[in-house]
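pinging the channel bc i need a second pair of eyes. not urgent but kinda urgent?? the chain im working w is below, pasted from the shared doc
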Amino acid sequence: MQVGPLIRMPWSAMWAGIGAATVVAAIGLVIVRIIRPAGMLGVGFAWVAVVGAFLVATVATRPWKPRPIGQLLMAWLGGRGICFAAALLLGTLLYFAPQSPPDPLAMGLVLVASYFAALLVESAVMSRWLRAPRGTSTESGPAHGSVSRG
């Protein structure tokens, strides 16, 4: 049963999450370079793991596909679960992949900080987008009908 209009996810939420992960990783890179220069490889690996996880989750949720709002939210939550699993998997694979493993403390802290920063920013963008009236949304309006806010 389809309840509500068919709408698409906002691409801005996806890009905002990746942007937040990049900003936090850049700040982590500066801090690690000052405190522990040997850990810089781990910061790069952590950033690759988080951005890769968010890209995998974005493709898995298929935000370009119009869906009823209830299915859209479930797809987004499922995508966040895929993102978490992908971050763990990519982080583990990247940690054990090189000949000389990166500093585990630097990699772990940056991975966790950038993942949660990206998740918080993406959640805020999605929340703001879902509360916006459908007629004035700049991302993508409803494909059929309008959302009743009464």
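so The helical segments are 11-35, 40-61, 69-96, 104-131. and The chain has four helices and two strands. — does that match what u expected or am i reading it wrong
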